[in-house]
Amino acid sequence: AQSVTQLDSHVSVSEGTPVLLRCNYSSSYSPSLFWYVQHPNKGLQLLLKYTSAATLVKGINGFEAEFKKSETSFHLTKPSAHMSDAAEYFCVVSDRGASGTYKYIFGTGTRLKVLA
Amino acid sequence: NAGVTQTPKFQVLKTGQSMTLQCAQDMNHNSMYWYRQDPGMGLRLIYYSASEGTTDKGEVPNGYNVSRLNKREFSLRLESAAPSQTSVYFCASRERVGEAFFGQGTRLTVV
Questions:
Q1: What is the mean pLDDT of each run of 10 residues along chain B (111 residues)?
Q2: Which residues contact B65 (CB under 8 A, 6 or more apart)?
Q3: Across residues A106-112, what is the average pLDDT?
């Protein structure tokens, strides 16, 4: 069964310092992986996606993530945090299940705080 | 280009009342999903539909039913609402391996 674990529920960084949000997944086949961001009382915005092409994926707003199959990880990074990055971030895994259908499973989220 | 449309946006129910949350997408996607979002728990999958006429249980299906009326529409029904069903509900659609597109959410309060 597919699942995703976001290793930190809260992360605090200073403005201008690097961001690392960690995500590990479990999947039986070849997963697709996604990162979303949600600002307070807003909807979900796709940051980036991995769907079996290049393992280093670049997204919007300077974010990127690297798919590492040997470590079953898909960590999200950004070289320099901005105040506007303060939000909740979700890692998502999708894979073909035993019934042949594709679930879309969210992690529990990481709340990023950016300090001035 | 509407994408995924959910109605209503807000709803207050009394315990024991029933209601249906509506979702429609105009992107001709085969797969549709219903989630609930609660603080600290991310989005949990309630039900999903891989294609018209099929539905499957997700992580938290108890207390809910769904109908995939046609390719565009996927509704979520609460037969007898409970306070534990107070949440924000999101509908989504996608093609088989692409990213999901989400509606703006329905904020449901059960008192």
A1: 90 97 96 94 93 91 95 96 97 90 96 97
A2: B76, B77, B79
A3: 96
The number of angstroms, rounded, from the C-alpha of B70 to the middle of its chain's C-alpha atoms is 15
CB atoms within 10 A of CB A66: 15
- pLDDT, tens digit, for every residue of A64-83? 999 999 999 999 999 999 99
Which residues does residue B87 pair with via DSSP β-bridges, in sequence order?
Answer: B108
Quick one: tokens of A53? 């092409």
Burial class (CB in 10 A: 0-12, 13-18, 19+), B18: exposed
Closest residue in chain B to residue A42, using alpha carbons only = B104
Q: Quickly count: other Cβ atoms within 10 Å of residue B49's Cβ.
A: 21
Instruction: Find the helix or strand (DSSP H, E) in which A47 lies.
Output: strand A44-50
One-letter amino acid identity for B46? I
DSSP run (H or E) holding A25? strand A23-26
Angstroms from A22 CA to nearest CA on chain B: 15
- Contact list, B92 vs chain A (CB under 8 Å): 104
